Amino acid sequence: MLHSEEGVPFIGVVLDFEEAADESRPGETEVLTRVCWMYRVRDLKGAAKAALEEEPAVTRRAVLSEARAGGDKGTFQEVFLSNHANAVSAASIMHPIQVWCLPDERLEPLLLPAGAAGSGPPPGSAPAAGPAVSRAVLLPGFVSRRMYTVIKHKLLLLGKVPPAVAKKEFEPWVGQMVSELLRRTQAQLPAEMAAWVRRCEQRQARH
After folding, report:
1. Measured distance CA(110)–CA(137) in Å, rounded
2. Among 2, 22, 141, 166, whose Cα sits 20 to 30 Å from the Cα of 127?
3. Which of 174, 152, 153 is nearest to 85 (CA)?
4. Which DSSP symbol is given to 201?
5. Any bridge partners for residue 11, and if so which?
6. Which are the contacts of 113, defined by CB distance < 8 A and separation ≥ 6?
7. Third-level CATH fold of 11-206
8. Distance (Å, rounded) from C-alpha 169 to C-alpha 163?
9. What is the mean pLDDT of residues 22-51?
10. Which superkingdom is the protein from (predicted)?
11. Is the pTM of this model over 0.85?
12. pLDDT confidence of 30, banded at 50, 70, 90?
């Protein structure tokens, strides 16, 4: 999560850091970070926005202590990874957040088992709004299933990004980043799911 002058924080993937001359303070340096930006529904344009009519985004809820009055009240849409990256001051980094990256449109990997969620999820989990999961409960965190191409304004499932890189439709770093994010999600999900199932069971036991 990165600070924004607009009030609602930006979401991005920190790729690397570098030291560079500070233009505002001659003779001194500052630490920059290269960030790949994630877009919200309201940021999409053209064909990408139209595509959401066929495959709606997942509505998420998150309480953001840094959000200013007049923001989106903590209601966020599914976020979209992009091929847009640039360098910003490392001082703009606020804190890490969880973004689950999935290779296709299926949300099943993030759904709490019906038995565990039957008596209501523990605080912090989120009901998912969507045609296939209207009554399901998703693990906490944001979800990214599609990449937004900032020049062509199109959406592409994350699982199809590496093959597109092989066809030179994206720069190599895009494929490397997507593959790593998908790998991390796959590696982290079992333990995270087990932890939340235990919390649900403990809550049900208390009631």
Report:
1. 8
2. 2
3. 174
4. H
5. 38
6. 197
7. SH3 type barrels. (2.30.30)
8. 9
9. 86
10. Eukaryota
11. no
12. confident
Return d(Cα 116, Cα 123) in angstroms, integer: 14
* pLDDT band per the 50, 70, 90 thresholds, residue 200: confident
Residue 4 above 80 pLDDT?
Answer: no
Under DSSP, the state recorded for 90 is G
From CA 89, how far away is CA 18, in angstroms rounded?
10
48 sits in which H/E element:
helix 46-51
Comparing CA positions, the residue from 184, 161, 182, 183 lying closest to residue 173 is 161
**If we measure between CA atoms, which residue out of 75, 128, 135 comes closest to residue 105?**
128
Would you give the distance in Å from CA 113 to the centre of its chain?
22
pLDDT tens digits along 87-121: 888 888 888 888 999 999 998 898 877 656 544 44
Tokens linked to 147: 């990449």
Q: What is the C-alpha separation between 6 and 127, in angstroms, rounded?
A: 27
pLDDT above 70 covers what percent of the chain?
78
C-alpha pair distances (Å), 41 with each of 20, 45, 175, 181, 201? 33, 9, 23, 20, 34
What sign results for the dihedral spanned by CA atoms 56, 58, 61, 62? negative
- Burial status of residue 86 (CB atoms within 10 A of its CB: 0-12, 13-18, 19 or more): exposed
| Residue 164 CB neighbours (<10 A) | 16
In the chain, the DSSP E strands lie at: 11-21, 29-39, 59-61, 75-77, 80-89, 99-101, 126-127, 137-138, 142-144, 146-149, 154-157
